[in-house]
TrEMBL record:
Species this protein is from: Candidatus Zambryskibacteria bacterium RIFCSPLOWO2_12_FULL_39_23
Domain of life, per lineage: Bacteria
Name recorded for this polypeptide: SHS2 domain-containing protein
Length: 401
């Protein structure tokens, strides 16, 4: 099912938005209306446990529990907040790391004779590359059907060297384009579909699944970026995702195994605290409310956290630099309580291979304030930047249907 067929011609539609990450699952009930910005009716968040860095099976098992919990919470509590009678019809889901794999492939076909660009021609390219991707991910001679393609698109198409927004029906000797594919494990998708059906009775064909790097790229490209080359840095609970965009094409995505929860674990370990007390201290540190002794202790801990995080960053930047010159514009999404910490990390002067990147970097923090005029809320509804990005993305699709 194409994403545009997902939306039928209606003046408004009530949907559930879900952002499945590695540190938490965020959810919202949102009303989309023709020629209006989206309206948040109700929101909620359930965190993953922090004490130990979870294995993949542990994370998957906890995700199943939390997904049912957030859906139950949204439906039982959110619908009572509505000032109008309307049924929830759609569920819109995005996955962050480690739930997906993403690949961008440069396609260049040159023939002596002219050939026609048709839908079947493009579908054939997608199907062939899908099989190659499946084989690569399975690591076996025969593809393992344990995952599903959730996003596939051919972008930045050039016909005989000229960029075309629509290449269908054109003849060419030289076809140049980028194919973007992303996959999510079939077992993960089954968990999502089963939880949604159980809690809302919404079937799988009314559920649309995407990945956060692609969603955030489209929002940044369409709203924030006057530059076609940039990096999106998404710092979540367990990881930092870096997405490289060149000429408005997602070229590569890299995950660094360090995020907000690593800071909390280090505070808990070094100060001999529970994860809950460590997280509370982190909040107080961000608000400038800690006593001087604990403040200095956390600052010392952050020095060690920064050293490890910067090693991962250097490795990622080196991998990006093998592609092309590194863009100077960086869009940052991160939880508000640790945003100043990571901004400080990035502002440090270094002598390693990130020195030039740091020196030239134009860091733009995408937070709920910068997004606030792209959505509205009912009274007392809290919206974080991640859910706002999802709403902006899906509203574009709804308006374009």
């Amino acid at each position: 099912m194409s994403i545009l067929s997902f939306f039928r011609k209606k003046e408004d539609e009530l949907s559930i938005l879900l952002d499945i990450g590695n540190g938490s699952i965020n959810g919202a009930i949102v009303l989309f209306t023709k020629n209006k910005i989206p309206r948040f009716i109700f929101t909620g968040e359930v965190p993953f446990s922090i004490p130990l860095q979870p294995s993949a099976p542990e994370l998957s098992a906890e995700m199943k529990i939390l997904l049912n919990k957030i859906l139950d919470y949204l439906i039982k509590n959110g619908l009572s907040k509505m000032t109008f009678a309307k049924k929830i019809e759609k569920v819109l889901v995005t996955f962050s790391s480690p739930w997906f794999a993403l690949k961008t492939k440069h396609i260049n076909l040159v023939q002596q004779n002219y050939f026609l660009i048709t839908k079947d021609f493009l579908d054939d390219i997608i199907e062939k590359e899908k099989k190659v991707f499946e084989k690569l991910l399975s690591g076996e001679d025969s593809p393992n059907k344990s995952f599903e393609i959730v996003e596939k698109s051919i972008v930045h198409t050039k016909i005989n060297g000229y960029e075309m927004s629509n290449s269908l029906g054109r003849k060419t000797k030289n076809f140049d384009a980028y194919l973007c594919l992303s996959v999510v494990g079939k077992s993960t998708i089954d968990i999502v579909h089963n939880a949604i059906l159980k809690n809302s009775h919404i079937p799988a064909d009314m559920v649309s699944i995407h990945t956060f790097p692609v969603v955030s790229f489209i929002v940044v490209r369409d709203i924030f970026s006057a530059n076609s080359d940039f990096i999106i840095m998404d710092i979540t609970g367990e990881v930092t995702d870096l997405t490289l965009v060149e000429d408005n094409v997602v070229i590569k995505s890299i995950s660094m195994p360090s995020g907000r929860n690593f800071i909390i674990r280090q505070i808990a370990k070094k100060l001999d605290l529970s994860a809950e007390i460590a997280e509370s201290n982190l909040h107080l540190y961000a608000e400038g409310k800690l006593d001087e002794k604990t403040k200095i202790q956390i600052q010392t801990i952050l020095l060690d956290v920064e050293k490890e995080w910067s090693i991962y960053l250097e490795s990622a930047i080196q991998e990006f630099s093998s592609q092309k010159n590194i863009p100077s514009t960086v869009y940052l999404t991160v939880d508000s309580d640790v945003a100043p910490i990571y901004k400080d990390f990035l502002s440090l002067v270094k002598t390693d291979s990130t020195a030039e990147f740091r020196k030239n970097m134009n860091l733009i923090h995408i937070n709920k304030e910068t997004l606030s005029h792209f959505y509205e809320t009912q009274m007392e509804v809290e919206v974080n930047e991640f859910m706002a990005i999802l709403a902006v993305f899906y509203n574009k699709l709804f308006q374009d249907k």
